[in-house]
Design a protein that fits this description.
The protein is α+β, with helices and mostly antiparallel strands and about 450 residues long. The protein has a domain of about 260 residues: Transferase(Phosphotransferase) domain 1 (Transferase(Phosphotransferase), domain 1, Orthogonal Bundle). About 35% of the residues lie in helices and about 10% in strands. It has 12 helices and 11 strands. The strands form 3 sheets. The chain has a 6-stranded antiparallel β-sheet, with helices on one face. Strands 7-9-10 form a 3-stranded antiparallel β-sheet. A two-stranded antiparallel sheet has the order 8-11. It starts with 6 loop residues before the first strand and ends with a helix. About 25% of the residues have low confidence.
């Protein structure tokens, strides 16, 4: 068929071919009714489809064209019309004077990270508008990205787009999309999702900045296997764009970078900042789960040990601070006196007070009895009988003093019977203190004792 002679739908004159893909061709056409140039996509069904399958294919194409018509955004090529002619569907779209991103990379080589970030941010805005309308593109790739002379990036070819709430009407065993740019979950037979379009966008930007597709292989099956299982080669030219690419190329869609986060990071790059590391970045390898569990257990055990040591030291210091100081005060003195004529002297307990200066002076200077002989000049005299020093009454807890029931009085002389009785009374005492042993008492000399015996 001649490019200048074909008329589609009675109004669209096909002028020349401007694109070709697995799902058909794209024509530069002229709308004879409205007098404007348009792009017309001829959607060709696979050649091995049967008659009923061709009908199902046509139904799906019309439905996807209606879905693409919902999106109204400057970054999305608008859909004007859809029709059927020659046994297959035709989609009339906005014609954008541009060249595709795929042609630019193949002809001029990789782009700079800043240029790629600018294109990526515009495509993210277009996908945001499509997803908000409930439409998934399912075939984002460099050949579907149009670059205008004024620097705009336009996402086109929503010919295989579908809505999220509609069941797919596709032939069993046929994958819709380009294998090298297909998300792993779709390559494994899963359904498309907004995260699937983000993966395809990540591969598109990877090819723009690195110059090649990371998963392209010699045939479709090998390419799909690489998409599902292989890791991409280390980034050599991405620079500040590397964190965004690695985030979009997470094989698990739940871990994939979100559209909002990708927009934020690309905006920072365009503004002249850096998001994270730059330069060649290897693909992160997940750490074995058993090793991570071991490190977690070791960290918990170390923390518990530190807490135990600190708590034990604090408890020891607290108990030490509460211990009462040792009592280093001297033991109270015990005052004893010699026996009196009236009987044994009562002993003092530990509650008795210390001897007063008056007691000490009375003990050191015993009274003499009248009628006793004077002591010789060559030695100290010994009294016949001496009374013990007068003691203060013992204090009771109520503060009252107890008066002694019997107060010894000095006697002039002692009889032999009284002396014997004193000796009998003194024998049972084991720890008897002599007057010299008592504090403040004066021990009589031997010479004075002999004189007393002679006089008796």
């Amino acid at each position: 068929m001649s490019d200048s002679a074909v008329m589609v739908g009675g109004r669209y004159r096909l002028l020349r071919t401007i694109g070709r893909g697995g799902m058909g061709k794209v024509w530069h056409a002229h709308d004879e009714v409205l007098g404007r140039d348009v792009a017309v996509k001829e959607v060709l069904p696979p050649p091995d489809l049967t008659g009923p399958e061709r009908e199902v294919f046509a139904v799906r194409t019309f439905r996807e064209a209606r879905a693409a018509g919902r999106v109204a955004h400057p970054g999305v090529a608008a859909v004007y019309d859809v029709l059927e002619e020659g046994g297959h569907p035709w989609i009339v779209m906005q014609l954008v004077d541009s060249r595709t991103l795929g042609d630019l990379v193949r002809e001029e080589g990789p782009m700079s990270p800043l240029e790629t970030a600018n294109i990526g941010l515009q495509l993210l805005e277009a996908l945001r508008a499509a997803h908000a309308a409930g439409v998934l593109h399912r075939d984002v790739k460099p050949d579907n990205v149009l670059l205008t002379e004024d620097g705009r990036a336009v996402l086109t070819d929503f010919g295989i787009a579908t809505t999220e709430d509609e069941a797919p009407v596709t032939r069993t065993g046929i994958l819709i999309g380009t294998p090298a740019f297909m998300a792993p979950e779709r390559a494994a037979g899963g359904q498309a999702s907004p995260a699937s379009d983000l993966w395809s966008l990540g591969i598109t930007l990877y090819m723009a900045v690195e110059g090649h597709s990371p998963f392209q292989r010699d045939n479709a099956l090998a390419t799909l296997s690489a998409v599902m299982h292989a890791e991409s080669a280390p980034l050599a030219r991405a620079g500040v764009l590397a964190p965004v690419l690695l985030g979009l190329l997470r094989k698990n869609p739940a871990e994939r970078m979100s559209l909002v986060e990708a927009e934020r990071r690309l905006a920072v790059i365009i503004a002249g900042g850096t998001t994270e590391q730059t330069g060649p970045v290897p693909i992160p390898v997940a750490e074995p789960r058993s090793r991570r569990r071991g490190l977690r257990v070791a960290a918990i055990a170390g923390s518990a040990l530190i807490v135990a040591v600190v708590a034990g030291g604090a408890a020891w210091w607290s108990n030490r601070a509460q211990e009462p100081p040792l009592d280093q005060s001297p033991a109270p003195a015990v005052v004893t006196a010699g026996p009196s004529s009236s009987g044994p002297e009562p002993t003092r307990d530990h509650e008795s007070t210390r001897p007063t200066p008056a007691e000490t002076s009375s003990a050191s200077a015993p009274e003499r009895s009248p009628g006793t002989a004077s002591e010789p000049a060559n030695g100290p005299s010994a009294p016949q009988s001496s009374s013990p020093p007068t003691k203060e009454p013992r204090k009771t807890p109520t503060g009252d003093r107890k008066s002694p029931t019997h107060e010894p009085t000095p006697t002039a002389s002692k009889t032999k019977d009284e002396t014997k009785n004193e000796k009998k009374t003194e024998k049972p005492k084991e720890n008897k203190q002599t007057p010299a042993q008592a504090p403040g008492a004066v021990e009589p000399s031997d010479q004075g004792r002999k004189k007393v015996k002679k006089r008796r």
